[in-house]
Write a structure and sequence with these properties.
Blueprint (H helix, E strand, L loop, with lengths): L1 H24 L1 H12 E6 L6 E2 L7 E11 L8 H15 L3 H10 L8 E7 L1 H10 L6 E11 L24 H4 L2 E3 L2 H6 L8 E3 L2 H5 L1 H5 L3 E7 L5 E8 L6 E4 L3 H18 L4 E6 L6 E7 L5 H4 L4 H8 L9 H4 L9 H10 L9 E3 L2 E4 L2 E4 L7 E3 L1 H6 L3 H9 L8 H11 L21 H8 L5 H8 L9 H13 L3 E2 L4 E6 L4 E4 L4 E3 L5 H16 L14 E7 L9 E8 L6 E7 L5 H19 L2
Helix pairs in contact: 10-22, 14-21, 16-19
Length: 608
Amino acid sequence: IKIISLVIFLFVVIIFVRNGYLQIWRGQDYSLLAEENRLRLKPIIAERGIIYDRNFSPLVTNIPSFNLVLTPQDLPQNTTERAKTLESISSLSGLGVSVIEDRLKNSKGHYFQSINLVENLNYEKAMGLIVSGATIPGLTIEQIYTRLYLYAPGATDSNSTSSINQVVPVDSLAHILGYTGKISKEELQSHPSYLLADYIGKTGLEKQYESLLRGTYGQKATEIDAMGKEKNIVKVSPPEVGKNLILTLNLNFQRTLEEITVNYLKKFNKKKAVAILLDPNNGEILAFVNLPSFNNNLFVNGISEENYQKLVTDKNSPLFSRGWSGLYPSGSTIKPLYASAALNEKVIDKNTVILSNGGIQVDRWFFPDWKAGGHGLTDVRKAIAESVNTFFYFIGGGYNNFVGLGLDKMILYLKKFNFGSSLGIDVPGEASGFIPSRQWKLNTKREQWFIGDTYNLSIGQGDLLVTPLQIASLTATIANGGTIYQPHFVKAFVDPSNNSTKEVAPIKLQDKVIPDAYLKIVREGMRQTITVGSGRLLADLAIPVAGKTGTAQWSNNAAENHAWFTSFAPYDNPKVVLTVLVEEGGEGSAVAAPIAKNFFSWYEKEVK
């Protein structure tokens, strides 16, 4: 009797301890689990914000579609029943059981979240699956919004439901807008509030402004049955639509600049180019052409392996945003910077004259002018207009008794104009460029810095690397009198819920980098580039243009030089800066300048 009583007593104690553990220690957890079995909280996806050009032309839209989804929690726990259910799901969805199992494994840790099985279904197909899957636990249909980029190359991926009839064939917006895609494991870790089946901005403005474009998800509380099927809606909290972006881009400018650039690339049998049009008075980017480009609609619903391989193996790198990520020797487009620095440091004045007779000799090394026999007596304006190398050898590295800026001051002024650092454009992936130095050469090449290195740097050759955006910024700074503005694509944010607008104020990175009195002399030289110098091709335009040509050697093999032309207009009241780079284009005056001329000819008529 004592033994039986002891056993009963211990048994009762165990029951009370276990009951206390379940109801007190773990009570809240099991209460939530029980509530989840009765009440299911489901997110309501917010519609993503729309992106417009500055004239409120939509550049993207959202297409409603449906996904077939599975909630792992609702699958039977019994192994046999679970296997039968997965077979039914496989038969209905067209996915192999092993594929479904893999997706379930990847969803561990997100037990109550749905996983996508079949995406982007049309209405008829979705309704058919709802009926067919009515008796399958955990299987349901969810409405989503698919991004469609309205200006893109016409071809669509086989995985896409986008209508080709809605897309206008424009190539050059893909790098700017970027694209959305399925969230990855790594992205999910850094965005814990996102869902397994979420889409996220991957590149371009879609990535940069993801938190604003995404909006705030709503929530629907529903009563469910044992199979996870919705029976009654208890409460609905509506989603908040994402913010709309109003860009600085002018779609008409963008399309025209792209068309002109493409036509000249075909004419010269070239493939790669950048053309940047911006407002020098506030940093607003009016058009930005990166070529070649790609169809960002291919990525939205998951690009096929075939199409992806075509893009990544293309030797012209269409996925590369060369305008703000590409690094190139500047060629002579950097010379106006050194001219303004030399004026500011009193190395020269506006009347200083240097004789160009074909180049300079230093010991056994000869540093030539591009013009055989030289350019004769040259002041700073003529040096800019005719791109006289000898003049810049003198003001950069000095020669005989003439004391130039020297390497340290050249580097100082390059940094003042934001070379060697990013400008902060509002898209991911901007490169900083590269400024060579004595220490860098010693560490990297195991060589001392020679005067010849300074001479090369003074004409934009050697190891100096810049982005096309930096050259456009330099030109804008000279044009506006010495202020460096942060270049940007977004002009305003609009909240669709209350139609309120928040303007983006221009950001000054630096003010009065060089006194305008000196920059005025440089601008005069850039105007002479057009009237009597290397840019005479543009002399007959109705709109007065100032500019600088450049030809940048970048390889010791037979590859052609890069062709540069950077400019602003009108000369007496600058409204736009246009910078053009044609990779391996040859002479800037022959290849890049015609693109600018054609655009300015159109622009002058357009803005009348």
